[in-house]
Each structure stands twice: as C-alpha cells, then as structure tokens.
Amino acid sequence: MKQIFKKLTERDKKLSKILESDINCIFHKKEKFTANQHFLSLCREIIGQQLSVKAAKSIWERFIKGIKSNKKLIEKIQSIKIEDHKLHGLSRNKLMFLKELSEKFINKEISFKKFDQMENEEIINHLITIKGIGRWTAEMFLIFSMKRLDVFSVDDLGLRKAVMKLYKLKNDDREKILKISLKWKPYRSIVSWYLWRALDRKII
Predict the structure, then answer these.
(1) 1, 167, 178, 181 - which has most CB atoms within 10 Å?
(2) Same fold yes or no, 2-30+152-200 and 35-144
(3) Closest by alpha carbon to 42, among 119, 104, 121?
(4) Can you list the positions of beta strands (E) in the chain?
(5) Beta-carbon neighbour count of residue 196 at 10 Å?
(6) What is the domain partition of the chain in residue ranges?
C-alpha cells in the first residue's frame, strides 16, 4: 500500500492530505468475498440505496439477524409480503428488487462464479439488467464485494463532494471530476475509499 500511495501522490500531490496508513481500509485486507457471499453483498447494496451509511447499516443488521446462508436469506425475502415491507425497514420497491434478485439467483440467471473472469464494465452491464440495480449499485458492489481496485463512481454524491472540497471546485462538474479521477488509475477505488473517509472525518 505504501508503494501505491507513493505513486498516487507523485501524480497528484493533493492526495497526500487524505492518504495515510489505516489498517481499517478494506484494501489493506487481501481477502475478497467468495462467490457465495456476493448475493448477500448485493442485497445489502440494494437495501442501502439512497440511505446514509448509518441508517443502511442499522436496517441491514436487523434484516440479516440470525441468517447465515444465501438459502436462508432467500427464504426470508420470499416469505415477506409486499404490503409488509415497512415492518422490515424497506420501501415497497426495494423489497420487490430483492425478490427479483433472489429469483434470478435461484434460476441461475446470474452466476457470481463467472465474475472473477469478467472486466468491470462487463459486470456492470450484467448487473444493471436486473431491476433495481443501477450503475451506482453495481459500482459499489465492485468496490466493496469484489475489491476491484480501479472503480470511480461519479454518480456517488459523497465522492463528488469530496473531490470538490479537495480541489476547491465551485461547481459539481461531473466531467471535470471524472477527468481528475483519471490521474489515480489504476487505483481509483483506493482513492475513493479515502475520499469517503476524509469527508466523513471532515479532514477536507
């Protein structure tokens, strides 16, 4: 990680303000989720859509309590009646999205085992065919579940805010923000993690 930090700060000196050794960074850990864990991870990303990190974590922990396998999770999702969505902290749409994802998983329309051999854009294009999964959700999946190193989600408001603060940009110019992110290739996921952290801790 120190070598990666060195390369990044040589290309972009502003990153020296946010990059620091942190054993809690997900990219310090070498292990990735297994194919069996990807279904669970994608369900979590759907539940977390348009919620704060704290709220998403709270709802997910309640939802997943006592569940230790994909089979049990699918059984729970399928057992919930649409009209009971609020009892589980979900919107009607999110529950419907979870049901569709579980059906596709059961019917083997989605195979996480193949993802390791696929490029990022291939995975994104595959995932966004599932109702309720847009590009942002697919990109979060790539970063947090698959631990892909070079993902930057310009659709993420937090990332855009962090870049605007770090580079003192006056406008939320996606094209300019994307251009800045190109300096960080092929480690944009790592920079993204530290940008989120810096924004959360008000370092920038």
Answers:
(1) 181
(2) no
(3) 104
(4) none
(5) 18
(6) 2-30+152-200, 35-144
Cα–Cα distances in Å, from 36 out to 91, 100, 106, 121? 26, 18, 13, 21
Q: What is the fold of 2-30+152-200?
A: Endonuclease Iii, domain 2 (1.10.1670)
pLDDT tens column, 135-187: 999 999 999 999 999 999 999 999 999 999 999 999 999 999 999 999 999 99
Q: Cα–Cα distance between 9 and 17 in angstroms, integer? A: 9
**pTM of the entire predicted model:** 0.86
Catalytic residue set: 156
Tell me the two tokens of residue 18: 């946010």
3-state secondary structure of 24: coil
Place of tokens 């309640």: 62
